[in-house]
């Protein structure tokens, strides 16, 4: 939810923000832990 909110707050169109948030979530569930599992902006952009 944070990735979606951040991209919407940055002025991204909803569809693009949703794609970004989906990529962030995909990366997040591949790692153990909570805060440590959150991907960086660079990681999400590289994934896309």
Number of E strands: 0
Q: Calculate the terminal CA-CA distance, rounded to whole Å.
A: 18 Å
Strand content: under 5%
Q: What's the helix count? A: 3
The tally of domains stands at: 1
Q: Percentage of helical residues?
A: 55-70%
Notes on the protein architecture:
The protein has helices at residues 2-9, 14-28, 41-47. It is 62% helix and 0% strand. It has one domain. Helix 1 runs antiparallel to helix 2 (14-28) and helix 2 (14-28) crosses helix 3 (41-47). The chain has three helices and no strands. With 48 residues, the protein is mostly helical.
In short:
This protein has 48 residues and is mainly α. The chain is built from three helices and no strands.
Which descriptors apply to this entry?
62% helix, single chain, 48 residues, 3 helices
Topology:
Blueprint (H helix, E strand, L loop, with lengths): L1 H8 L4 H15 L12 H7 L1
Helix pairs in contact: 1-2, 2-3
